[in-house]
Amino acid sequence: MSAVLLLNGPNLGVLGRREPEIYGTDTLADIEKAVAEEVRARGWQVVSVQHDGEGELVGAIHRHRDATVGAIVNPGALMIAGWSLRDALASYPSPWIEVHLSNVWAREQFRHDSVIAPLASGVVVGLGAFGYRLAAQALMHLCAEPSEPAAITTSTRGGPAPA
């Protein structure tokens, strides 16, 4: 069975209690469940990893690089200066989507630049916990199952086949 890596950075382990006016009241467990619901139809599982330290996130990317079909990554504040996280994601072979609960461009200036976003297959911001569902849908689109061979049709109309 295939799996999606759900990677969450610093301070995301306290979602639901941390500044709910900005980040909402959904917990990380709620988000994990929502992502699992989205990818279940594809037969995918979710491997969820949250760490407050960048080194642990880098290790998780390397450990799961060959066992996952893609990733959903909320780097938290590491988007700003997480250079080792950026380098680990640069070597991640599958598509991945960067997610942020808040609209980072509507907030403080220092949040307006992400060192990892240019590497992402896509970025979802400002839609709260629902953004993770959208990221899961995008990942399923990017990891489309191979289509079945086109059916060969024959004409039953009279006359010779065109040359």
For the record, the CATH class is Alpha Beta
Count, helices:
6
Q: What is the N-to-C order of secondary-structure elements (H for helix, E for strand)? A: EHHEHEHHEEH
Low-confidence stretches: 147-163
**CATH-assigned fold name:** Rossmann fold
Terminal CA distance reads 47 Å
The average pLDDT score comes to 87
Shape: globular
Sheet-strand content, in percent, reads 15-25%
- Number of domain modules: 1
- Structural class based on helices, strands and sheet pairing: alpha/beta
Largest sheet: 5 strands, parallel
| Lateral arrangement of strands in the main beta sheet | 2-1-3-4-5
Task: Name its key features.
single chain; 163 residues; alpha/beta; Rossmann fold; 5-stranded parallel sheet; 6 helices; 5 strands; disordered C terminus
Describe the structure.
This protein is an alpha/beta fold and 163 residues long. It has a single domain (3-142), classed as Rossmann fold (3-Layer(aba) Sandwich). It is 33% helix and 16% strand. It is built from 6 helices and 5 strands. The chain has helices at residues 20-23, 28-40, 54-64, 78-81, 83-90, 130-142; strands spanning 3-8, 45-50, 70-74, 96-100, 122-125. Strands 2-1-3-4-5 form a 5-stranded parallel β-sheet, sandwiched between helices. Helix 2 (28-40) runs parallel beside helix 6 (130-142) and helix 3 (54-64) packs parallel to helix 5. The N and C termini lie far apart (47 Å). Residues 147-163 have low confidence and may be disordered.
